[in-house]
Amino acid sequence: MKQYQTTGAGAPLELVESSTPEPVGSEVLLRTRACGVCHSDVHLHDGEFDLGSGRKLPVGQPGMTLGHEIMGEVIAFGPDAVGVEVGDLRVVYPWIGCGQCNTCRRGDEHLCLAPKVLGIHQGGGFGDHVVVPHSRYLFDFGGADPALAATYACSGLTAYSALQRIGTLATGDAVVIIGAGGLGQMAQQIGHAAFDLAPIVVDIDPDKLEAAKAQGAAAVVNSKDADAAEQIKTLTDGGAVAALDFVGSELSANFGLSVLRKGGKLIVVGLYGGQLSFPLPFFPMMARVIEGNYVGSLSDMDALMKLVREGAVKPIRIDRRPAADAENILAELKAGRVQGRAVLVYD
To answer: How much is the CA Rg of the chain, to the nearest whole Å?
Structure first.
């Protein structure tokens, strides 16, 4: 088995070879066929999250095999595994919990305080084999592009879960998506498929805004424009009912709050970093809500993959790269040079 592992904060990845594990019990062994590269992989490789005011949250450690957007081929399984066959191609739900706590028992494994997430706490898709603890974490993706299918395990799931937090929309209600990168593009396509949503899309990159327009955005706005917030208030007759921030920076979160109507909701999804400062009286006066969204539940994944198998979710741009390029992709993603989603592919 070959794995590209971390060696230190921001340091080069190291190719490590070891014996291929043999699955036991309910475990399923996959040969990795594709693995999406996510911004959280960049943070884990860098070893920190930016908390603002010079503060950092240390994360990651040497010896991690990153990669949580995994699509693979079943090559073996333990004697207690059910519902799988050798040769099955499956997307992996990586947000695995302890399975014992109240959080896990109510179906929110992704929020478990003792997580066993693939690509973080256990070996992920930056390795050519992955052990999955149970077949319930494996999903058929129908006729979808296998490389694209890998990205539904985080990018797609996160977008789907965040969109659900908007709630019921009335006629004329407007939703703003901030960030037209891979995650924002995924949200736009899933929003259309699952919620009949045509959002206003905001970004600073004209090319990404053009792509959003081509994908059916109700309108696009460049947040570099001095009157960007006013443009949105004009388009929405006073403000949006919800803004989904897929960037998660100080600038993007403040912009999101500035375009909400009274009673509106800011849903923070991105992890770029920083801190938010906002006058407390405005929260009750404007009846606004700030809500965070962290990936999604196993039931969310099931609902999303049903849409994928039905062909309801239109594809976004995928940049396929050999697994050996993992380190270069992390650097390109950090620098903002990736259009759509970058995916490692294995021979």
So the answer is: 20
Residue type, 150: A
Q: Which fold has domain 2-152+317-345?
A: Quinone Oxidoreductase; Chain A, domain 1 (3.90.180)
Q: Give CA 47 to chain center in angstroms.
A: 19
User: Which of 233, 159, 210, 197 has the alpha carbon at shortest distance from 339?
Assistant: 210
Question: 57: which 2 tokens?
Answer: 């949250």
- Rounded CA-CA distance 168/284 in Å is 22
Are the CB atoms for 295 and 270 separated by under 8 Å?
A: no
Tell the residue number behind the tokens 């208030």, with chain if given: 233
Residue 347 has a pLDDT of: 85
Amino acid 116: pLDDT: 98
Q: Does residue 194 contact residue 310 with C-beta atoms inside 8 Å?
A: no
Its pTM stands at 0.97
| Distance between CA atoms of residues 312 and 296, nearest Å | 19
Encode pLDDT of 121-152 as tens digits.
999 999 999 999 999 999 999 999 999 999 99
| Three-state SS at 178 | strand
CATH of 156-292, one of 3.10.129.10, 3.40.50.720, 3.30.200.20, 3.30.420.10: 3.40.50.720
Q: Tell me the average pLDDT across 179-184.
A: 96
Q: Domain segments of the chain: what residues?
A: 2-152+317-345, 156-292
What average pLDDT score do residues 64-82 get? 98
Q: 56 vs 51, 98, 204, 273, 284, CA distance in Å?
A: 5, 27, 26, 9, 31
Q: Which amino acid is at 14?
A: E
Going by C-beta distance under 8 Å and a sequence separation of 6 or more, which residues neighbour residue 106?
none
Distance CA 11, CA 257 (A): 37
Q: What letter represents residue 224's amino acid?
A: K
The Cα 246–Cα 180 span in angstroms is: 8
Q: Which two tokens stand for residue 200?
A: 């206003």
Q: What counts of helices (H) and strands (E) characterise the chain?
A: 11, 17
